[in-house]
């Protein structure tokens, strides 16, 4: 699990990490070594060579801690570099390649990652191949992509990278599981693998075997096999390479189907061993009761003794702690992401194994350290209708099936994160893959229209929203709020284009539908009135703006208590209009009501409070009461300086205005 307990970060998926590194003074000069290189590259994997220990160390340190590399090193350089890099998570194992084995046997005993001292190239290749073939069974020091949900409230959730990673991973995995694989994806994946391993003859033979003989019932066999599939698929999961994961959809669906063929029928306890840093242990200790998403297929064993044996045989270093996960799972509580028994591919171990579906979610119930230093982490599989999970994903659920996350939700969440290009690419992919009559096609066009509006491409955004609206009008009821959303979005585009007439007409259509759907006194209707008032205000129609703002306030006063900020915003809007009409006393009355509500409902340095102080200052200045005006402006600038950057236009404007009127106040103009 290791470093994957930290938030997942997007990395350069094209960066080539060489799984084998060879350090030797003569690695590129000795004829024998050059021939050995060709043999390694053609039979095992890609290889990177170094003649300088410092450059080799710098390269290893530059690799992500999520990667694992094997180092081959000459005995002349081994004593120099091994002490410096032995503790690095990137280093999986080390082989000393030399002529004399005996002189190195004593000093390497303190370094657990040194697997062997070899004198022949074929012996080296056989040892590395043997280790690699066991990797799928012994994943103790392998990365398991994981994310933890840290808080419960949506405000905290939307401002927390851990939680964003959790939601991102769950929505991506749900999309992969819901969308049917495309017919040509397997062929595209095979072509990609052939290019990736074009110089590795052993892998090319496996790719050809996969191309010729793969069937859906062999998916788990290929997943458990140390090969190109295991390597590329797991890296795609670690790095969340969306394009590559979509090529693997057929594989993901086939593995899930394979799990369903041999499911666990009763509650079970299984085990998983890991090596983890103290920082990662501390993160777990602070996450008791939280949700943990395992963002890969999660391999576990039913025998605790076997897990402990694997853990004791694993390469380790002083900065890593030994951890055993104890997982309780009840098949009756989880149906969308099942778990089941699988058979091992080889004779290295015959212990029964249990595989959990990609994206399974667990609750961390307990963590403690035994007297022997072993950490025990207890997890329980979450049920489909877990209360906290439902709260987290409530806004992403389909209306006709409350237990299913909408497939389009991943694109929406990418947009919320500001990853507009990724969101656009994902939604465009959906448009190409879904049948023309699919019910979410209109939603795809709507979300794409919202993305283009964020990019300030207004005409294209308008076309997309009109296309979405046209489809919605054909397939939805007349009072469906989704149609109102389209009208409101179209109005926003017209507002940005300064076409206030069309903006008003579209907002008005949205108002009519919202009243039909919710009634005249619903809070959503108050939002519609606020939108119409904003257009009137833009056109200096203050009487019209005041009427609509007052209607919005009347509705909110029926529903909202004095401790809700929307009520304060309504009073602020009305105060602005009274100020524009020159009715200063009425403006001050509503500004003060707004300020009292906002101060009781928002953090002290919230920008909305600064807006209210600024409005008060303008009214006092309008009345010639500059001392009071300056006092309000000072409070405004204090908040703006805390909430905004020093170069933000609001900060610059208010500071300039204070500088402008300060001399007048100093001349006793009150």
UniProtKB/TrEMBL annotation:
Keyword Repeat tagged: yes
TPR repeats: 526-559
Gene3D superfamilies: Tetratricopeptide repeat domain, Toxin ADP-ribosyltransferase, Chain A, domain 1
Alphabetical UniProt keywords: Repeat, TPR repeat
A Pfam family hit: TPR_12
Record PANTHER family: AAA+ ATPASE DOMAIN-CONTAINING PROTEIN, TETRATRICOPEPTIDE REPEAT PROTEIN (AFU_ORTHOLOGUE AFUA_6G03870)
UniProt protein name: Uncharacterized protein
Species for this entry: Rotaria socialis
């Amino acid at each position: 699990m290791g470093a994957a307990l930290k938030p997942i970060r997007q990395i350069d998926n094209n960066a080539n990490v060489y799984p084998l590194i060879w350090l030797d003074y003569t690695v590129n000069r000795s004829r024998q070594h050059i021939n050995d290189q060709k043999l390694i590259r053609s039979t095992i994997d890609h290889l990177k060579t170094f003649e300088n220990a410092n450059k080799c160390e710098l390269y290893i340190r530059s690799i992500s801690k999520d990667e694992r590399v094997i180092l081959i090193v000459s005995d002349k350089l081994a004593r120099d570099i091994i002490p410096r890099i032995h503790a690095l998570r990137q280093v999986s194992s080390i082989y000393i390649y030399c002529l004399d084995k005996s002189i190195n046997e004593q000093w390497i005993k303190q370094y657990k990652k040194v697997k062997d001292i070899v004198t022949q190239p074929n012996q080296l290749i056989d040892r590395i191949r043997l280790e690699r073939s066991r990797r799928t069974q012994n994943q103790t020091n392998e990365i398991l992509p994981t994310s933890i949900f840290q808080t419960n409230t949506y405000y905290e959730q939307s401002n927390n990278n851990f939680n964003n990673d959790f939601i991102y991973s769950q929505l991506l995995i749900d999309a992969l599981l819901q969308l049917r694989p495309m017919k040509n994806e397997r062929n595209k994946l095979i072509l990609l693998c052939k290019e990736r391993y074009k110089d590795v003859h052993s892998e090319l033979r496996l790719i050809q075997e996969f191309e010729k003989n793969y069937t859906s019932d062999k998916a788990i066999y290929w997943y458990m096999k140390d090969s190109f599939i295991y390597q590329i698929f797991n890296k795609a999961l670690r790095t969340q390479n969306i394009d590559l994961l979509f090529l693997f959809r057929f594989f993901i669906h086939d593995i899930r189907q394979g799990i369903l063929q041999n499911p666990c029928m009763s509650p079970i306890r299984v085990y998983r061993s890991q090596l983890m840093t103290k920082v990662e242990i501390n993160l777990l200790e602070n996450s008791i009761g939280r949700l943990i998403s395992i963002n890969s297929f999660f391999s576990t064993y039913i025998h605790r003794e076997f897990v402990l044996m694997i853990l004791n045989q694993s390469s380790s270093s002083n900065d890593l702690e030994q951890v055993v996960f104890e997982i309780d799972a009840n098949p009756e509580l989880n149906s969308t992401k099942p778990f089941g028994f699988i058979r091992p591919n080889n004779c290295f171990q015959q212990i029964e194994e249990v595989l959990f579906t990609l994206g399974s979610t667990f609750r961390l119930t307990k963590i403690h350290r035994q007297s022997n230093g072993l950490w025990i982490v207890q997890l329980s599989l979450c049920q489909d209708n877990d209360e906290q999970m439902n709260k987290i994903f409530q806004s992403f659920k389909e209306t006709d099936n409350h237990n299913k996350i909408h497939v389009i939700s991943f694109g929406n969440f990418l947009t919320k994160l500001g990853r507009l290009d990724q969101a656009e690419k994902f939604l465009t992919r959906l448009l190409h893959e879904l049948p023309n009559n699919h019910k979410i096609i209109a939603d795809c066009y709507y979300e794409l229209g919202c993305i283009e509006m964020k990019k300030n491409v207004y005409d294209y955004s308008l076309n997309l929203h009109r296309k979405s609206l046209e489809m919605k009008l054909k397939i939805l009821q007349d009072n469906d709020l989704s149609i109102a959303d389209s009208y409101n979005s179209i109005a926003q585009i017209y507002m940005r284009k300064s076409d206030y007439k069309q903006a008003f007409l579209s907002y008005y259509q949205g108002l009519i539908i919202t009243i039909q759907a919710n009634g005249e006194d619903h809070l959503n209707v108050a939002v519609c009135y606020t939108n119409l008032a904003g257009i009137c205000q833009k056109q200096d129609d203050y009487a019209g703006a005041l009427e609509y703002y007052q209607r919005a306030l009347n509705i909110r006063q029926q529903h909202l208590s004095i401790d809700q900020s929307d009520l304060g915003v309504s009073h602020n809007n009305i105060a602005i209009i009274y100020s524009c009409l020159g009715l200063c006393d009425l403006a001050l009355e509503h500004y003060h009501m707004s300020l009292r509500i906002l101060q009781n409902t928002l953090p002290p340095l919230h920008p909305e409070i600064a807006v209210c102080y600024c409005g008060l200052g303008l009214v006092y200045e309008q009345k010639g009461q500059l001392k009071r005006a300056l006092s309000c402006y000072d409070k405004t600038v204090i908040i703006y300086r805390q909430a905004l950057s020093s170069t933000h236009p609001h900060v610059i404007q208010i500071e300039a205005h204070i500088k402008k009127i300060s001399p007048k106040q100093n001349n006793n103009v009150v």
